[in-house]
Amino acid sequence: MNVETYRTRSIMRALTDRAVTALAILATALVVAPLVAIFIYLVYRGASSLNLAFFTQVPKPVGEPGGGMANAILGSGILLALASSIGVPIGIGGGIYLAEFGRGTKLANAVRFTADVLNGVPSIVMGVAIYALIVNPQKHYSAFSGGVALGIMMIPTVCRTTEEMLLMVPHAVREAALGLGVPNWRSVLSITVKTASPGIITGCMLAFARVAGETAPLIFTALGNQFWSTSLNDPIAALPLQIYVYAISPYDDWHRLAWAGALVLIILIVLAVSLVRFVTSRGVLKGAS
Amino acid sequence: MVLCAFSIFGIVVLIVWQLVVHSQLAWNKFGLSFFYQVFTDSYTQQKLYWDPVNEHFSALPFIFGTLVSSFLALLMAVPLAVGLAIFLTEMCPTVLRGPLAFLTELLAAIPSVIYGLWAVFVLVPLLREHVNPLLIRWLGWTGLVGNDNPTGLGFLAAGVILAIMILPIISSLTREVMTAVPHSQREAVLALGATRWEMIRMAVLRNARIGIVGAIILGLGRALGETMAVTMVIGNSPEIHRSLLANGSSMASVIANEYAEASADMHLSALTEIGLALFIVTIIVNAIAQLLVWAVTRGTPRSAR
């Protein structure tokens, strides 16, 4: 190869390198742009429509200005409490099995795989299944069915995060407990799980935040409600459901409320995500993310 | 604990059982032709796919809508996601890495109804006023962008919002598999005098390619099942058009729109059958993706999500 072609080739290589770097930076900018756009617009529209009435009043009939989403906030609270009481214990139990008792077994691998696959099942399908299972035999929509749908959706997420958090507990801690003659189940419960508990709790919060924004499985289980309702047997309002209904309505006043609701929802989720990041980046669980 | 673990199998069995039982009516009447049949309107002699009043049910327009919007989304999201992952793992200054990773994580946690809200009030007007006229002027001759839908809703709007939604999933998994490539591989290529891009291409992308394909398929799985944001912007009409700017409907969006209002048993059953089809497809897509990602990241610690 003569010197001339060698030189052109090395210039070409350097140029390609620069071009790819530029493209990667461009891609990053293009990804960050919509996120920033969404956030700024959300805060701008949401903050201007958020007021005390939003948290204290029920929706007004069409045409009357004002009103709030107090019933939807309460409804979301009830639904999420029900969902957590189903999803959290079962999820944590499954996670403990995967990380401690069944580690390395074929069964555990199958469960892990199924949980990951289940995580990707569209939430609307979960809604259809719960409709068939609970709403259809009962012949009416209910808060209970909505809570069950959300609870089932929490299980795989909680299960997998619990497992990941448990696996982060150093082996030395377990060995110390076992070396003192503590039975395995005792060591798991009072040493490993306790050490990982901040991580497990924040993992639950993450799952909580995720189902807090779920709309699709609630459309035909919890249905929504314009009035105060706390009964598990009746349709109940939920924040994301209300945002959906208001967003596709033609009324400006409802659009305002939808933005305010979205802002409340996003604040809850940002808090949960930041908390997870904070907890996993310190203490014994360091190195998680 | 074992019981809790088994409950995960229980959930899958429960879903399948309920969906199968409740879609029997439609299955018995239409069989497999449910997924491809086309009806003809007796008055106008036009093609007709979905007419609950006369019990004409065909899943064809919804399958079409789901596929078109998902592939549009992949087309837009994949290059950006891989670019972002390359930037984050190989080029980014350490100061920026944390905040950027956090931002993409946040993007993944935003509920789809909020994406939908944003799309309805920001994206759709933007497409309607600025992007669609340009597309029609430049690409009108291809027939892929028609001039007959002035609303801004449609497949393109759905594709764009889906792309924004699946970006973080694809890029965070791509990042994971790229981080799993051993450093010695990178060092070996660099020691031979490669530039940074050549190192990325030869050491990182080549070793991680199966995992990246897995990440893309996982993103596809999300896009196929995404409901709320798509329902809010796709236009919701059970038709098949060549134009990407036309109104359409996806499998998930038709369920979200009609399930609560369906009163006839056959209508409910047909919707449930669409749900079952969606479930099976997403299960298969997710399983393939999961296996591919596992094949690459096995042995390295997973980051918490």
Task: Note down, in words, how this protein is organized.
- The complex is a heterodimer of chains A (289) and B (305).
- Chain A has 289 residues and is mainly α.
- Chain A has a single domain (73-281), classed as MetI-like (MetI-like fold, Orthogonal Bundle).
- Helix content of chain A is 74%, strand content 0%.
- Chain A has ten helices and no strands.
- Chain A has helices at 3-49, 52-56, 70-101, 106-119, 123-138, 143-167, 171-179, 184-212, 239-247, 252-280.
- Chain A is globular, with a radius of gyration of 25 Å.
- The model of chain A has no long low-confidence stretch (mean pLDDT 87).
- The model of chain B is unreliable at 301-305 (pLDDT under 50).
- In chain B, helix 3 (60-91) runs antiparallel to helix 8.
- In chain B, a hairpin with a 4-residue loop joins strand 3 (50-51) and strand 4 (56-57).
- Chain B has one domain (60-265, 277-297): MetI-like fold.
- Chain B is globular.
- Chain B is an all-alpha fold.
- The interface between A and B is large, with 104 and 87 residues.
